[in-house]
Specification:
With 341 residues, this protein is an all-alpha fold. The chain folds into 3 domains: 8-66; 70-104 and 207-337, no CATH class; 115-198. Helices cover 76% and strands 3% of the residues. The protein has helices spanning 2-6, 9-69, 71-155, 158-198, 209-229, 233-244, 255-274, 279-292, and strands at 310-314, 320-324. A hairpin with a 5-residue loop joins strand 1 and strand 2. Helix 3 runs antiparallel to helix 4. The longest helix has 85 residues, at 71-155. The radius of gyration is 41 Å and the shape is flat. Mean pLDDT is 84; it is low at 1-7.
């Protein structure tokens, strides 16, 4: 009767398993649902961000269209983008110079590391080979001595052979043991030679602070060279300003003023394309920059901007002219992105 009311034990166990299975399925479904909701919110945020970016881009496009409708502002817009293009040209040249310089220094340091590593490996190899030669020579001598003692034992006859047999046998055993030990040493030395041959060269662990500083002095020197190409700090500032601001935020004057600026831009582009920067000039300027550079700490590779605000130019008579322009502090040509840190 009780079994009819409450069911048998196997039936209760089966029902419990089904309830437990349903519970875990529900928990997994809730977990998946929560994950889907989280993904939904993330995608909604991405859509909002994209809509905002699209709206801002549309505003810029409409703003540019309005500028181009006005003839005077159209000339200013063209001048703006030509100046920005000039600034970007300078930045690309600086970026290429910085990357090539870093690669050269890293390769030079790695080559020096490999030379040092290989010299040490050759020194160890010579030591092992000398030991190996000494072991083999000793084995040869002991082998000859062992052979001589065996021959001596064979030649002995009568009472003398009986009397000295034990002594000669002891010598033979001792010599054989010595040869066996030396042969083991030879194997160990050969193993060391193989390990030395299989040793992997060291990896390049990056540049030290002194090298990074010297690289940065050269990058600043090159940035100054680009600045000096303009021959006019105000014109260089115009190019930088166009790279920092948006179109319509700067007015260069009427159509005549803009045409004058456009001719100057073309002239400077031609000068930059023709110029061949002399490495000796960059190196000399770099040394002068390094003499004035101040750092916030011993671990800093980038100097304090105001300490390298002097721009050095060199005359044909080897004279040095110093002017002021905080190229690093004002981030001309995006220099901050290309310095070693």
């Amino acid at each position: 009767m009780l079994a009819g009311l409450f069911g048998s034990a196997p039936d209760q166990s089966h029902d419990s398993e089904k309830l437990l299975h349903l519970y875990w399925n529900r928990a997994e479904l809730k977990k998946e649902f929560a994950g889907l909701r989280k993904e939904q919110f993330r995608l909604r945020d991405l859509v909002k961000q994209q809509e905002g970016a699209t709206a801002r881009l549309q505003q810029k496009l409409e703003h540019l269209e309005n500028l181009l409708i006005d003839p005077e502002w159209a000339s200013n817009a063209v001048t703006f983008y030509q100046l920005r293009g000039l600034a970007l040209r300078c930045e690309r040249k600086l970026a290429r110079f910085a990357e090539q310089l870093k690669q050269q220094r890293e390769q030079k340091q790695h080559n020096q590391l490999l030379v040092s590593w290989n010299d040490e490996r050759m020194r160890e190899r010579r030591i092992i080979e000398r030991k190996l030669a000494g072991v083999r020579e000793t084995v040869t001598e002991l082998g000859a001595a062992l052979k001589a003692e065996k021959a001596k034992l064979v030649r002995m006859k009568g009472f003398l052979k009986v009397f000295r047999r034990r002594t000669v046998t002891a010598i033979l055993e001792k010599t054989s043991n010595q040869i066996a030990e030396l042969q083991q040493q030879e194997l160990e030395l050969l193993d060391k030679l193989q390990q030395l041959k299989d040793r992997r060269p060291p990896e390049n662990h990056g540049l030290d602070i002194a090298t990074k500083r010297s690289i940065n002095f050269m990058i600043i020197s090159y940035a100054q060279q680009l600045f000096l190409h303009f021959g006019d700090s105000d014109f260089a500032a115009l190019a930088k300003e166009a790279n920092d601001k948006s179109v319509g935020g700067i007015k260069y004057g009427n159509d005549t003023d803009c045409q004058h600026l456009l001719r100057r831009i073309q002239k400077h582009v031609a000068i930059m394309d023709r110029s061949n920067d002399v490495a000796a000039v960059l190196q000399k300027r770099s040394q002068l920059i390094g003499e004035k550079a101040v750092f916030r700490s011993d671990d800093d590779a980038v100097p304090v901007a105001t300490s390298v605000a002097a721009v050095f130019s060199f005359g044909s008579d080897a004279s040095i002219t110093e002017s002021k322009a905080n190229i690093l502090g004002e981030n001309y040509w995006g220099i901050a992105k290309y310095l070693s840190r």
